[in-house]
Amino acid sequence: MREYDVAVIGAGVVGLLVARELTRTRARVVVLEKEHDVARGASGRNSGVVHPGFSVKPDTLKARLNVEGSRALPSLCARLDVPYREVGTIVVARADDELDELTSMEADGRANGLERLGIVDAVTLARLEPAVPGVAALHSPEGAIVDPHLLCYRIAASAIEGGCELRLATEVTSLSRSGSWWEVDAGGERIRARVVVNAAGVRAPEVSAMAGAGTFESHPCRGEYLILEKRAEGVPRMMVYPVPPKAGGLGVHFTPTIAGNTLVGPSAEFIDDGEDYSTSAPVLRMLAEEARDLCPAFDASDVIATMAGVRSKIGRGAYGSVDFVMEASPSAECFVNLVGIESPGLSASPAIAKAAFGMLAEMLGLREERPFASLPPLPPRFAEADDETRERLAADPDGRRIVCRCEHVTQAEVLAALRDPVGAASLAAVKARCRAGTGRCGGSFCGPRVLSLIEHEAGVRAEDVTLKGTGSRVVFGPAKSLWYASDRGQEGCA
Amino acid sequence: MSAGTVLVVGGGPAGLAAAAEAAREGARVTLVERDTVLGGILGQCVHDGFGIEMFGEALTGPEYVDRMLDDLEGLDVRFMVDTMVLDLGDGPVARIVGPEGYEVLRPEAVIVATGCREKSFGSLAVSGSRPAGIFTAGTAQRLVNVEGLTVGQRAVILGSGDVGLIMARRLVLEGAQVECVVERMPYPGGLPRNVSQCLNDFQIPLLLEHTVTQVLGRARLEGVVIAEVDSRGEAVAGSERVVACDTLLVSVGLIPENELLGGTSAVLDRASRGPVVDQMLMTLSPGVFSCGNSLQVHDLADWAGREGQTAGRAAAAWARGEQEGCERVPVMACAGLRYVAPQVLLAGLPATLRFRVTEPFRRPCVSVKRDGMVLAELRFDHLAPSELASLEVPGFEVSGGPVEVCVDAPAC
Fold first, then answer.
1. Which of A148, A493, B91, B324 could form a cystine bridge with B62, CB 3.0-4.6 A?
2. What is the pLDDT of residues A383-422, one digit of tens each?
């Protein structure tokens, strides 16, 4: 039976950062992830926003960790070669009766330690963000965006490079205490670990219950998004929020993405099944209406895709009033619970991981003995490269064939995604790594090509290639009437 | 590139025709095609019906391409396959990448013949998850006909556009069970001959005034929820029923692909979703031409080809330096017409106007007028939104107001 010092359950941003922290010690670490790829839960289904910390109530763990985490993210991103863009945030008051709310948020921000924060008038607002009319706005120039998938892949790569083991498609089915060990059944195998870290996101309450480590009332809250195409006109360039709705939450907002798209959302619906990532027509229509309210030039025909994520809320009640739970379980030895990590989870993640590391170091007597493993820099994206760089990239035969024609993703980039140390080979995994399939055609043109590349690279049959892991095969097998006799997909007519 | 050079972007029916004509007119032509073979979308169209106008025969897609390639035999056209034009700028200037590396080209003229894309499932407000098994009809066509793969065993088709109808039949021939074709409008979206030969002949039900409101299943599709729609296109509560299936083909519209023009001063017409052009098919970016599905969605490859020929001749003339300043007159599309192209007419030159109506008309009269004078008119037996129609207009010299194109029913 394999033994580890720490088993981390969940390869989202928090679990991966905890694992990465541990690579500076002698601890033997394994990350157990039930999905076929990292960041398949909330960590891959969010706005990618780094909140500076004015939208959280002061004197909460959320507030403290939000500020600490968001201050650590720029250097973490630089180190991992992950783009970090300070686009700035505005919270817009559209009527005079909303001004008090702005003042209150400004006060919260200052109480949380923010200095570069201020209320601007309608004229300044029009100059800052011409797409959004209003009477005044709270402006925070520090609001930033990241690509959460890329961030997670690089954290994972860094952890793996530092000696951490990552086991995908490995669901934990039972946890029991045996002497000074945890015995963990996962992926049909039993392993032992001295400490377990529960970073299982929306399933964290379940994992905690499985281990007898405490019960939490789980109230998953889904958020749906619209994704706008890159050439959408008249959309904001900054992050734009309305004054928070009375019902709670941040309201439907506009967020530019690192790739150049725009997100509209999220909605907020309490659901029963925390992994129900479906979108619903009425909610999508509501998002479009609220988007148009905020930004009159919004055009629904610019929507190229929709998506959903689920917030791990614990305890119902006024939105956002329940704090993070980060504790060594009082009812189970050597078990660290990181539960209820919803917004500002991404922003707070480096601080959450640091706090968790502190607990683990104490439990296991760990010391930092070596630096983080260094990672090779990320190759430039062909689509964003200048002429000179493109010439250089085109020296590689794979680097001069475009696979995704909407996003100008080359075959070299798709192959690099398939050869990534994290190692997931599905259309969704490729899409999240190199953007093939995220364009305006919705993957119609590149889908068959990526399928073919996965077949060849992973050495599997077409019918074994999945969209997003087990059970989601794309095709059923060879066609009855083969138009072309051999070398399927490589030869065409004439 | 030296004087008299024309770059054709796209090797489908429009691009191949444009290249042939431009070469015949003495231009030095380079055609860039992003696929590894020429032919564009025709390479995956194994059904026949292509070429009736161009060649007087009903050919399959690949056969049509072969004829076009025969036509190009001996002409001075350089083909660059597996090569993509990444961006275009005024000049014109083009950045391309392919087996010959990364290059910046400065031809005298560019013809954008990049075809169209399908409206994606993701852009529709259909409830549900993202299970595998949902394809646009064209992607399914590629997977079946070119990649030789079976996409599913039990299918529903959303949208009765031609591609959807063709694929309904194709799936049956591949041994799949096609449950139905679901169409939002009270009339089919595709050509009547396709409704007859693809659905009726195979007893595939066509459910008009219905839509798919939800997809079921998480990993792979398990079924769809179908509902009736009312006259406003809203689902009728209580009319929902589940149809079990593992495959959904989506054929709900084609969108001209002209992203490349975004880097130029070409202006798009929101109604046609193609660029504003004159009857020489030149956009508002000098030397940049547009033809085929990239300009406006065509029903027939032959017509895309004819448009390609017009663009080819015009681009060659432009590349020779024949850049006349003619009076330019805007064309206004009146009520009943979704759009008319070209949107600008050069005085003194004849024009082929192409247009689509917003609703079906019986025995309509389409007239082209200027300052009260009728320049051309034509009576049609019927017109439907799914049929691209055309009308020839002779050249006019008189200065005056814009040209108006109107449709009136009953007949004039």
1. A493
2. 999 999 999 999 999 999 999 999 999 999 999 999 988 9
DSSP B13-77: HHHHHHHHHHHHTT-EEEEEESSSSSSGGGGG--SEEETTTTTSS-EEHHHHHHHHHHHHTTS-E
Is 90 exceeded by the pLDDT of residue A423? no
Q: Which amino acid is at A39?
A: A
- pLDDT tens-digit series, residues A383-394: 999 999 999 999
Nearest CB to A466: which of B82, B127, B132?
A: B132
B149-150 vs A477-478, strand pairing mode: antiparallel
Asked if B150 lies within 8 A of A304 by C-beta distance, the reply is no
Determine the residue of chain A that is closest to B250 in CA distance: A444
Contacts of A471 in chain B (CB under 8 A): 218-220
Q: What is the percent of chain A with per-residue pLDDT over 90, rounded to a whole number?
A: 89
User: In terms of CA atoms, which chain B residue is nearest residue A394?
Assistant: B101
Residue A296, C-beta contacts closer than 8 angstroms, at least 6 positions apart: A133, A234
Question: Measured between alpha carbons, how far is A21 from A158 in angstroms, rounded to an integer?
Answer: 10
Give the lowest-confidence range in A38-52, A235-249, B353-367.
Answer: A235-249
Q: What is the DSSP string of A10-59?
A: --SHHHHHHHHHHTTSS--EEEE-SSSSSS-SGGGSS--EE--SSSS-TT
Residue B197 vs residues A164, A432, B202, B204: alpha-carbon distances, Å? 60, 41, 8, 11
Residue A139 has pLDDT above 50, yes or no: yes
What pLDDT is recorded for position A98?
94
Buried b (16+ CB within 10 A) or exposed e, B346-381: beeeebbbbbbbeebbeebbbbbbbeeeebbbeebe
A10-23 pLDDT tens trace: 999 999 999 999 99
User: What is d(CA B254, CA B277) in angstroms, rounded to the nearest whole number?
Assistant: 20
Residue A306 touches partner B, C-beta closer than 8 Å = yes
Nearest-angstrom CA–CA distance, A170 and A192 = 15
Residues whose CB is less than 8 angstroms from the CB of residue B192 and which lie 6 or more positions away in sequence, other chains included: none
DSSP output for A320-350: T-SPPEEEE-SSSTTEEEEE---TTHHHHHH
User: H/E element holding B249?
Assistant: strand B247-250
Nearest chain A Cα distance for residue B31, angstroms: 16
> DSSP assignment, residue A2?
E
As a whole-number percent, the residues of chain B with pLDDT over 70 amount to 98
For residue A379, what are its two tokens? 């190759």
Is the model's pLDDT at A481 over the cut of 50? yes
At B4 the pLDDT is 87
The CA distance from A23 to the nearest CA of chain B, in Å, is 35
